[in-house]
Amino acid sequence: MRLASVLLSFLLGIAAAQPALAQATAAGDAPAKLVLGDREVMEFKGTLFGYPPAERAEAAKQRALRAYARNPDPRLRVRVTNDGAQVIADRSVLFHVVPADVNSLAGETPESRAEAAVAQLELVLSERQARSDPKVLAEAIGLSLLVTLAWLLLLRGVVWLATRAGRWLRQAAGVTASQVRPFGVAMFDPQALREGARQLVRALAWLAAGVLTYLWLNLVLELIPHTRPLGDRLTQMLLDVLGTIGEAVLHAIPGLAFVAAIFLIARFIAGTGRAFFDRVHRQNLTIGWLDRDTAPPTAAIFSVVVWLFALAMAYPYLPGSQSQAFQGLSVLVGLMVSIGASGTVSQAASGLMLMYTRAYRVGEFVRIQDTEGTVVDVGLLSTRVRTGMGEEVMLPNTLVLSNTSRNYSRAVPGTGFVIDTVVTIGYDAPWRQVVAMLTEAARRVQSITDQPAPRVIQTALSDYYVEYRLVAYSRMEAPMPRAEALSELHANIQDVFNEHGVQIMSPHYVGDPAEPKVVPRDRWYAAPAAAPGEPRG
């Protein structure tokens, strides 16, 4: 048997001098691994002497076992040949490493690959010796028990910490939920917030327990010689994961730094623009087309443009932005936003048009379709109007823009609002008397100002009556809403007409009257009217 081993070594030495005998793996010959003691020693990829990688691996395994049987502690070394390298145990060649077995693109050589195989063989031999050493086994079991005890104590500590932290976090969540009340409305449900805190603590506790269990299992497997290869594989798995994460973080740091720089620059520009537009709004400045009313929407548009531009610049530097999944998700989100926000975009465009056309301002009295009241807010999507009955009506901006709106606060410069009403009086009532009575009724309303003075306009001469429109102006300091002021005006009109014996009616008839319904000249200036040059009665 010893003579056969020497003869095989001699033949392998001769084969090392013949490069043509070592060929690359054929298409049907898959690489094969040499595994000893649960450790991968060598992976054969090439064909040697016509033997495929699988047969080379099996032959190398048998030679290694025979060498170990002869000498449990052989002397391992590497011998470089003309066509590769040999791994030798004492004087026996275990296997031959040829160029076809190495990855030359990664910088491997037959010699370096053979040296790595020798290091693995030495590790296998040391582990086999430790498995048969009672002292080593006893120390490994003792250390494993200590590690297990420490693992159990740490798990108990995790449970204790999770219980205390969960109790504190649930209490803090309840207090926070009760304190966060913008405009007097509770934003969070205390019970839901406490349940969320409990679930968060539980998830973190399970994560910590999982990490501790993985480390405990890895360490125990490393301590026992029989399971040390499995422990090494677990360690390698952990190192691979940490290495992948670390490499990804290192590669992402430059991009994240650039994204942070873009964010800071965009924030500075947006803040500067916001301060400028706030100054225009607060100090009521006018710079070209920019004034107090258009400053807020212009500030919003400026901020949106700045952040969209910053996002477009930062997008290529975000981690994973070049992946197909990230790009597909971006397209999906964009499609969903474009489909779902079509109505919102229309509302926003209408809101901007209303703001820039200055159709009305906050605090003005307007009438939009059937809604009349004070403008409370002109938003990007809707306009809120508070009516004289105490209601607050929210009108979509597309509805406001598509309907006729009346502004009662633009009659004269300054603040306030217009109050107008219509009465129809028969032709037998002197029009001068009617005008004087309507003017007197307006003067009796405290919230109506004398300047500009109330005026009466004859808007129509109908078939049966004359239509009179009374137009007055309310002061800014008037405490009454427009609806109350209009109600008081109507009451005063009835009182004044009753005082002077004039009926508020619109007569209709089916035949000609016996006498013409005309006003004699001597009644043209009936009280409270006064002829030109005479004092008012």
Question: What's the arrangement of secondary structure elements?
Answer:
Elements: H1 2-16, E1 22-23, E2 32-36, E3 39-44, E4 47-48, H2 53-70, E5 76-81, E6 84-89, E7 92-97, H3 110-131, H4 134-179, H5 190-223, H6 228-282, H7 295-314, H8 324-340, H9 342-357, E8 365-368, E9 371-378, E10 382-387, E11 392-396, H10 397-402, E12 405-407, E13 417-426, H11 431-443, E14 455-461, E15 465-474, H12 482-499
Antiparallel strand pairs: 1-4, 2-3, 5-6, 6-7, 8-9, 8-12, 9-10, 10-11, 13-15, 14-15
Helix pairs in contact: 4-5, 5-6, 6-7, 11-12
Architecture overview:
The structure is a single chain. By secondary structure, the chain is α+β, with helices and mostly antiparallel strands. The chain has four domains: 130 residues, no CATH class; 90 residues, no CATH class; 61 residues, SH3 type barrels (Roll), CATH 2.30.30; 107 residues, Alpha-Beta Plaits (2-Layer Sandwich), CATH 3.30.70.100. Helices cover 52% and strands 16% of the residues. The protein has twelve helices and 15 strands. It has a five-stranded antiparallel sheet with strand order 11-10-9-8-12. A three-stranded antiparallel sheet has the order 5-6-7, sandwiched between helices. Strands 13-15-14 form a three-stranded antiparallel sheet. β6 and β7 form a beta hairpin. The N terminus is likely disordered.
